[in-house]
Structure formats: C-alpha cells, structure tokens
Fold this protein.
Amino acid sequence: MNAKQPTDTLKLTLDNPTEQTMSSKNHGILQARLAGFFNLSDAYNSATELSIDVSTPERQEILKKYDLHAERELKPDVAVYLADTFDYVDPTVGIDPVRVHEIPLCCVEIVSPSQSSREITNKFKAYFDLGVKSCWYVDPNLKLLKVYFSIQTSKIFEEGEIIDPTLDIHLPVNKIFTTKKAQPPHPY
C-alpha cells in the first residue's frame, strides 16, 4: 500500500474547486482588524468567514447571473450586521446555525493571492442583488480600500479617513494598513 506524500495531499487540496481561496498573513491580519473595528461599535456585529445560505432557487439564479459557482454558501471575509438583529447565540437558549439566511449590511472582501479582481467584482454584484448595502474591497498590496455604495458607485481610500455613509462609519486608513510598534506586555 502506497502512502500519499505530503506534496500529493497539498496538490489535491489546492486542485479541489470547493476549497476556499488561499489566504496570506496580511489577509488574515486585515480581516481581524476590520472585524474588530466593526465589533467595537455598539451598532454592529461582524463575523469572519460566515457562511451565508445561497441554496434557495432565487439566490442560485443571482449567482448564475454572475458566474459564481457556490452551491450552498457565500463566505465574505467579513460580514457586518446590525447588532440588534445579529448577535451571539447563547447555546442554552438557541441553536448556533452553520449557515445563516440573513443578508449582511456590508460585505468585506480582502484580495488574496489566488483571487482576481473580476471574481471579487462578481461577488459584489451578487451581494448587491441579494440586498447588501455596501461592499468593501481591500487590497493589502496597494494599501487601498474601495467602498462600493452600489456596483456603479464607489470611492477609493488610500489615506485620510474611510467614510461609508451607508453605515455611518468613519475609520482612519492608517488604522488598517499599519505595522504595530512592539509594546511591552501589559502587567495584569
């Protein structure tokens, strides 16, 4: 019996079209920063890699229109919801769903090494058709964030303050694309 070599396993995983896109260190850091920013607000809750249910026939039609091949779910890097309608589920009171039906107010997509801008733009088209109010396109390599208010209307932020009037959000660009200075650990 031949055991699979680690390289064979890696190749099989990467060749599997159902696998998620490859991430990077910067992608993960930016994803955490942006989710954390939204979660600091009393108005919003955010989730990373949240599975949004797109299995209904109506939602499948939207995905087909934009050449997206998700059978059951879309997973934005960060999904933002109003806090009073989307919050932690106490397991003693309810069931924590694996896929949610609720459409986010905002979806954030961070360019990863294996994604094309066309793929992200098609996801944004689908998000807007599903009812999302704004989409954020984040490019770690160019240090820019582009807020889409619709698929035809967007604004690029490379410095200063990111403003999303749809969500009444103001965020300094330098809070996202920055290298933190080492600080001594906080004594507890």
Observations:
- Confidence is low (pLDDT under 50) at residues 1-19.
- The helical segments are 6-15, 25-40, 57-65, 117-130.
